[in-house]
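$ run holo --ligand "flavin-adenine dinucleotide" --emit tokens
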Amino acid sequence: MKDSYDVIVVGGGPAGSTAAKYAAMGGAKVLVLEKDREIGVPVRCGEAVDHEGLVQFIQPHKKFVAAEIRNFKLIAPDSTVVQPNIKGLGYVLDRKFFDYELARIAANEGAEIATKVYVDGVIKNDGSVTGVSVQYHGDRLFLKSKIVIGADGVESRVGRWAGIDTTVSMHDMESAAQVTAANVDVEEDTCYFYFGERYAPGGYLWVFPKGNKTANIGLGVAADRSKQKHALKFLDEFMAERFPQASVLTKIAGGVPCAETLEKTTMPGLMLVGDAAHQVNPVSGGGIISGMIAGKMAGKVAADIVKQNDMSLIGKYEKEWQDSLGARHHRYYKIKKVIYKFRDNDLDSIAHEISKLPQKQQTLGNIFKQAVIKHPTLILDVMKLFF
Amino acid sequence: MIEIHEDKCDLCGCCVGVCPENCIDLTENRISIEHEICTNCRKCEWACPFEVFEFKNEKVRLKAAV
Ligand SMILES: Cc1cc2nc3c(=O)[nH]c(=O)nc-3n(C[C@H](O)[C@H](O)[C@H](O)COP(=O)(O)OP(=O)(O)OC[C@H]3O[C@@H](n4cnc5c(N)ncnc54)[C@H](O)[C@@H]3O)c2cc1C
Ligand code: SF4
Ligand code: SF4
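-- output --
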């Protein structure tokens, strides 16, 4: 570690490594700081991605792909199963190896990566961010940079230290727990989603297979609804009921910011990407690909700023995000608000109607149509989605 | 006192994300609260998936003057 760089990236997750890769490719001197001792570990993720999203960045490889997904099953509170007719391929990754691979690629492009370095503040000068303070093996060091990229995940403290409020509301934070379990009997090409208050109020429960009878089984509960019963309790109950024979290989906690993207993701000397910028899809909680997309945009802009020595370019990142994914994210957030109005009996009756249709007609459009029929006041909410 | 059952903490950062005062510190292996800044709002307690925090008769405090 030197004491000065063009770009310092805080956080070695998918968003951080992708930002580092593109900044380094653009000629910048880049340092990635990760507080954990190992990139990719611990994995706090269901690890599901879609094919189109992934191949924008990297070809799927058995090194980091655990399972190929071809089907989805949606399960209503009363156990009615809907299998939507969605064509498309997805993967359940092995994020330990995936994150490792992304970091390795960034390093090969010239980025320097340092683990076990805890960032505990930012350095500010005249309203601009000009570096970070870190704790490293008992020392406190001050590292300077032209640009800091905050890719510090759900904690998102870099932004807050700099003066951007990144706090997630209790309504929008999904409080999550997950196990990776063995001896689980599921279809190995199918992702399962369980909805309803009994599984996960204000969120959902997932079963994502990872091959050889293993699976990620987890759930997220809206933090404002987890006061009485916390995520781990919901999960323990589900495991005992549905997979009593399973053995738990890992158990993790997590938080997913299912919120609107931050209104402000940049300031002079600073860009926020990934979970830190609340770029997770607010309906699905998926943030791997969107974090990488934002990382790429931010890394390229950072390299341009360095090359042209022009900080005024920093707004380009936020504009690019808003122009490409901003509107979609905003719409998803509104959809999430609608979905959360459903109570278990609404979900059950929607699932009943849909499951009567021939499989070909079990489309998301028809699910939505049924939802509106069952819950007419939704029409107003749905209208709002488009205005 | 807010009791932090450190042995239950998985260091996931969910509590940090909702803390309005940005006063929870999470290193690779340790969680701590800056008690002078904490307002006892209890959001961390409710958001934590693993029930790490236990608030004992703390009154909500006004935000510390900065
Ligand atoms: C239980 C759960 C299930 C999920 N399932 C899926 C899924 O199936 N599909 C999907 O696409 N997404 C899923 N997500 C979301 C996904 O995990 C995140 O969106 C994604 O990891 C975000 O990437 P990131 O690079 O922004 O942040 P992260 O991957 O969280 O990386 C942030 C990094 O920053 C480091 N860091 C934080 N603070 C500091 C500091 N002060 N100093 C140094 N380093 C620091 C952290 O240690 C971490 O390594 C899930 C999330 C959870 C919690
Ligand atoms: S939310 Fe709970 S498990 Fe996660 S870091 Fe905070 S105290 Fe630890
Ligand atoms: S009680 Fe509120 S202010 Fe105190 S640590 Fe928890 S979330 Fe932060």
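-- notes --
Chain A has a mean pLDDT of 94.
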